[in-house]
Amino acid sequence: MMWLLKPETLPEKLAVMVVAILLFAVVMGLVLAVVDRPRLPKWVPVAGYLGPALLLITFGLLWPGMLTIRNSFYDHTGNTFVGWDNFAVIFTDEAFLIVIRNTLLWVALVPTLATALGLVYAVLVDRTRVEKFAKTLIFLPMAISMVGASIIWKFVYEYRDPGVRGDLPQIGLLNQIVVWMGGEPQQWLLIPPANTFMLIIVMIWIQAGFAMTVLSAAIKAIPDETIEAAKVDGAMGLRLFFFITVPSVRPAIIVVLTTIAMGTLKAFDIVYTMAAGGNFDTSIIANEFYTQSFNQNQQNIGAALAVLLFVMVVPIVVYNVRQMRISEGER
Amino acid sequence: MSLDSSVGVQRKLTRKEQRQADSKTRLSSPAASAFAVLIAVVWTIPTAGLLITSFRPSGDVRKSGWWTAFANPSFTLDNYVDVFGTSNVANSFFNSFIITIPAVLIPIMLALLAAYAFAWIDFKGRSFLFAFVFALQIVPIQVTLIPLLSQYVQWGLDGTYWTVWLSHTIFGLPLAIFLLHNFMKEIPRSLIEAARVDGAGHVRVFFQVLMPLLVPAIASFAIFQFLWVWNDLLVALVFAGPEYSPITRVIATLAGSFGSRWYLLAAGAFVSMVVPMVVFFSLQRYFVRGMLAGGVKG
What we know:
The structure holds 2 protein chains of 2 kinds.
Chain A lengths: L1 H4 L4 H26 L7 H29 L13 H8 L1 H32 L5 H9 L6 H11 L16 H8 L13 H27 L3 H9 L4 H12 L1 H17 L2 H6 L10 H11 L3 H32 L1
Helix pairs in contact in A: 2-3, 3-15, 4-5, 4-15, 5-9, 5-12, 6-9, 7-9, 9-12, 12-15, 14-15
Chain B lengths: L3 H11 L1 H6 L1 H4 L3 H25 L3 H6 L14 H9 L2 H32 L5 H11 L5 H14 L5 H25 L3 H9 L4 H30 L2 H6 L7 H11 L4 H21 L1 H9 L6
């Protein structure tokens, strides 16, 4: 039965997949058959329907989360209690301070710029003949993996040594543009702190499509009467945008900002793929967690970084939920 | 953000003509149009550049930028043949399918049942448990990885498909339950009660009354979960053994080791992107609907 754990050929792998799906179907079928008989006490069907999901969530999210919080207060062996030492390291060591600074830069710039671009673009293409096509262009990066996006942009930033005579061609678009404009090509991903901004651009490129889609739907939900009334009063162009459109879609803007902020905090792939896991001062918390836990064998620091990430996500969520409550109350 | 924004989208369709009539008043200034075109170009060019590169002969890729291909066009499929031959791209491409299919089906089924219980069975502690599930949506998966991995090692299951499926299922569940519960709540109570009065048990109500109505909601979540699992890197790095790695992980590794062999990296990147792009273009409608219903996972 070893092939169920370690299949070697493609047919074996496919067989394992089919076995897994069938196994799941049989187990769920049995559970449903048992709990669906009439005249059982009420908790039996509830347990049958809810039990599997709750069990998995408890096993895979709640319990490991609590263990990680515990481990963040222990040393790397996990046996000696060290109090706040791990956090003290993170907040005093120079390398970690750069990681925190980068994370703050990411979480400040990505949500605001992606939302602003998405909003402006949604307004500009709204009700035009090419609207659907224009939106698909911006939206497409959402479907691409962050790994794919990283490679796309790594190629844009690619640097070629121009040679002694300085006439060897560039193959990266950014450096070619720099050369066309009479500048010197740069190794964009190796120069801190510029490289962090280069990585941030990639995340904005990915997230703007999400902002645009949600905000576009919100813009279309603004009652026509509101727009008409504003136009009668003489509001046009920028004034219409700032005094009518933006306030009308404010709840959607907040949802978009907070959602992107959470996604940005947890984003790991871009730094891993484009900057070899955070070289040259590019690391962010989500990425440093991986480096410390799995490359440096410092699980205690990794745990503290994960907890820090969690602590940063919580206020954003609380704010989001509270704003949703307020805007629901307004309706 | 609940369903009201998608209602907004539908209402817009009926007014489309009227809205198009006054479109001139909104996008009137040439500067505004130019800005929109600029954004569209910046968002498209990088992908187009890599796509063109993936079809250029390796010698050309090394010697000149992709924009020169318009002046002297010369294209080939060799890079794709090479990338399938010289590295484990082909193998990992199949791994991606094997990982993704169960990791989409299983959480959907589990979440449907849980959402049904939350929406249509009255029991004590329901709102507490629902808040618990909702709250766990925000846990960054980084917090869970190391304890989960040591548990898998203890069971002797580490590095297999099984732990990858299990992990993706767990990480997808809170969002799936939340989304499907929102959709399920929209179904009129009278429909469910009529079926219950006719003597239908929960299972029959679930499969015969609810499931057909939920197809769009299920499709929305399925696309999310599909894209999320297919595009995932972190879970694959931590839990999948090298021989069971999905294509994202292999491509991310190539980005480091291939260095300047851009002809291979470009082709490999597009092999990894073609499946999500097909899914995205064919099912864009459901994707947008799910997104507007509040389904976005970080």
